[in-house]
Amino acid sequence: MKEYISLFFKGMGIGAANVIPGVSGGTIALITGIFEKLILSIKSFDLTALRYLFTGRLKQFAQHVNLTFLLAVFMGVALSILSVARLFDYLFTHYPVYIWSFFFGLILASVFFVGKTIDKWNIVVIISFIVGAIVAVLISILKPAGENGSFLYLLLCGIVATCSMILPGLSGSFVLILMGNYQLVMIDAVNDLNIKVLLPVVLGAVSGLIAFSHLLTWIFRRFKNPTIAILTGFILGSLGILWPWKNEIYALGENGEWLLKKGEKIVEGYEWYFPGQWNQEVLFALLFIILGIAVIYLTETLAQKEK
Question: How many domains is the chain partitioned into structurally?
């Protein structure tokens, strides 16, 4: 029971990350130590699982897909999205610098602790780390594409956005903005229940998630150190999005009007800056960065004691 409670709270962390602009649930899965197991469990939804399910062999199905693990994690994800998201919405509205500072500290410390799991550093691992960091930085500064409602492009949106949600350092919602279909998919189609738009996105999401989990599993087994290195680079490269001092750049439609979600402007990027002077806000921001680092340090310490 203690293990499943722990998995539930880790799932809450993943769910919370998915509602934070620019943060990936895969990052939280990686730093809490369940990333590889999560990928393996998703990967297990194969022909064997379908055969167990459709022949009524539910016990074998549950064992094959590690159902108790997935239920514990995704129950935490669902509850977090429904509850913690509201808290974050309040904090981002009233204390944006402090909440960004806290998450900046979390992810900054994660770079060290995730990178520490690499068994051996060599030239391939170092290059993988650098490539991961560069790709994440480039993604964070890309300008969004135009809206595209074709079936194949929506299918691609579902594949890419879902895969980026489990890939550390990449945010699924941010990727949809870059692909130009955030409003079409996440706002218009969801609010109107537009099956014509949602169906290809869901098909892409499900197929992409299962296929990507197979790919990640294969890569992890054969190239574990370079894979962790490139994921660590992704996390490092995503720090720019979490930088506490930045001005938001809002998305515009084709006619120059603001794109809105629930009456609020949609953020498509950021303009970063350094605070001009030392004041109370800067001091508290630094304290929250330290607090974020401390949380990851304590999590890692407790995890080592559990082992």
Answer: 1
Give the tokens for residue 26: 């895969």
Give me the DSSP letters along 209-275: HHHHHHHHHHHHHHSHHHHHHHHHHHHHHTHHHH-SSEEEEE-B-TTSPBPEETTEEPEEEEEE---
Give percent of the chain above pLDDT 70: 77
Please report which confidence band the pLDDT of residue 125 belongs to, taking 50, 70 and 90 as the band edges: very high
Distance (Å, whole) CA 3 – CA 240 = 34
Q: How confident is the model over 91-110, as pLDDT tens digits? A: 777 888 898 898 888 778 87
Q: How far is CA 215 from the centre of its chain?
A: 18
Q: Which percentage of the chain shows pLDDT scores above 90? A: 7
Q: Which domain holds residue 71?
A: 2-306
The one-character DSSP state at 143 is P
Residue 246's beta-bridge partner residues?
Answer: 272
Write down the pTM of the prediction: 0.62
Nearby residues of 136 by Cβ (< 8 Å), 6 or more positions away: 169, 170, 233, 234, 235, 236, 237, 238
168 φ, ψ (degrees, to nearest 5):
-55, 135
Rounded to the nearest 5 degrees, what angle is found at the Cα of 49, between the Cα atoms of 28 and 2? Answer: 40
- Is 36 exposed, middle or buried (CB count within 10 Å of its CB: 0-12, 13-18, 19+)? middle
* Mean pLDDT for the stretch of residues 55-59: 88
> Which residue type sits at 178?
L
pLDDT digits (tens, 9 = 90+) for 24-54: 677 778 777 788 788 888 888 888 888 898 8
- b vs e for 188-216, b when ≥16 Cβ sit within 10 Å of the residue's Cβ? ebeeeeeeebbebbeebbeebbeebbeeb
262 Cβ neighbours under 8 A, 6+ residues apart? none
